[in-house]
Hints:
Layout: H1 2-29, E1 48-51, H2 55-66, E2 71-74, H3 78-97, H4 103-111, E3 113-116, E4 127-130, H5 136-149, E5 155-158, H6 165-170, E6 178-183, E7 192-197, H7 203-215, E8 219-224, H8 231-248, H9 252-262, H10 268-275, H11 277-290, H12 299-305, E9 318-319, E10 328-329, H13 331-343, H14 353-373, H15 380-391, H16 400-407, H17 409-423, H18 431-438
Parallel strand pairs: 1-2, 1-4, 2-3, 4-5, 5-6, 7-8
Antiparallel strand pairs: 6-7, 9-10
Bound molecules: nicotinamide-adenine-dinucleotide (NAD).
Residues 51-57, 74-76, 80, 84, 131-134, 142, 159-161, 183, 185 line the site of nicotinamide-adenine-dinucleotide.
Amino acid sequence: xxxxxxxxxxxxxxxxxxxxxxxxxxxxxxxxxxGITKQTPFKKINRAAVIGSGTMGGGIAMNFANAGIPVTLVxxxxxxxxxxxxxxxxxxxxxxxxxxxxxxxxxxxxALISATTAYADLADADIVVEAVFEDMELKKKIFGELDxxxxxxxxxxxxxxxxxxxxxxxxxxxxxxxxGAHFFSPANVMKLMENVRTGAxxxxxxxxxxxxxxxxxKTGVLVGxxxxxxxxxxxxxxxxxxxxxxxxxxxxxxxxxVIYDFGxxxxxxxxxxxxxxxxxxxxxxxxxxxxxDLRQSVILDRVYETGRYGQKxxxxxxxxxxxxxxxxxxxxxxxxxxxxxxxxxVQRRPFSKEEILERYIYALIxxxxxxxxxxxxxxxxxxxxxWHYGYGFPRYQGGPMFYADxxxxxxxxxxxxxxxxxxxxxxxxxxxxxxxxxEGRGFADYVVSS
Length: 450
Ligand code: NAD
């Protein structure tokens, strides 16, 4: 038995070091874009502007200031600007009090950030990153105004999480200079940028964006236009299957524990409480508009209706006593879950740890395969980089696509086909997953055709 255990530990640790090696190379690969070389011209960013000084805009402006680049923050009123600048100052002051930044350095960075309500002040910006409310009409209007206010070579980027950037680009006379710069929250902390290439974007725009990520100390991953781009599209499917499991018999804290034990910093329900149940609710409302016939879980609506939105209301799936960030299971939520299952006519059943993990991770993988077959990333390992830096997928598991190859695509395809029988629509197996599994190949062998 002890011999068997030795073999098991050796295999497990062998996979860990393989995963770490994979991530090391994946991070180097991610910067390589076919057709773009060191000779491709790109714009040096000497001056930047950020539209919207809210949660994301303030953090994005900090990134520029941290890199020594002067940045102008724009908002609709002096009050909004003062609030935005106040948060930025508070963030820096926190770093100073923790000894991570000197007061002198903080003053220098604050001095690089100016604020205005007038687009006319943006004439000489080399790049503008827009981070206003997620509203297509508003963004199109702003891009039209930026097109007039900025010099002709200014790159216009949006931090949108879901909107069609081709449509935003078409609202300007320079669609070749429009792109997505999708930062993750908190934008001054998270290393990932999904750099979104529109259909019309020029090589120079792409090269500038990829170089900008480096300048800002970020990991930039080039992705294509599509709902939720890469990371969030995968996350939403995994979150959905987690919610279905809860309707069928699992409890949120049981699901979260399994995902945490796999190596994620937190599970989907704790993450939902952090990001806001109201935020996920409105994302689902948008998705319903696009896909009215697709099945949604009911339990999330029921929790939303209670007004428990997560940490911001001191309770969501969990309870957060006195502003604590660690939740404790809420009995009333458990009751609500059991009642909802009964209303849905679902006979609750036990879920093993293994089943929870498989459903969650294989849902991610299947959606990753769809992203890959649609050509929204350059290579499978780019998805692994996105999931590590954007969502904390543990490095020692190597990212969802590497993990899939380790498990074997045959097994994953079989399981996903079962989930498809259970849930329909959202879990339709990817054609690419099916064909690679049939050929006994892995995602690592797959070359995206450009
Ligand atoms: P927010 O509500 O915190 O901030 C939006 C800001 O835009 C506000 O300060 C508002 O006054 C300002 N604004 C509105 N209209 C304006 C206008 N016409 N001109 C200038 N400023 C205007 O929103 P947020 O959470 O920072 O999100 C901003 C964008 O970033 C959205 O597109 C969102 O989808 C995206 N995003 C958000 C997150 C996140 O976790 N919050 C993550 C990635 C991307």
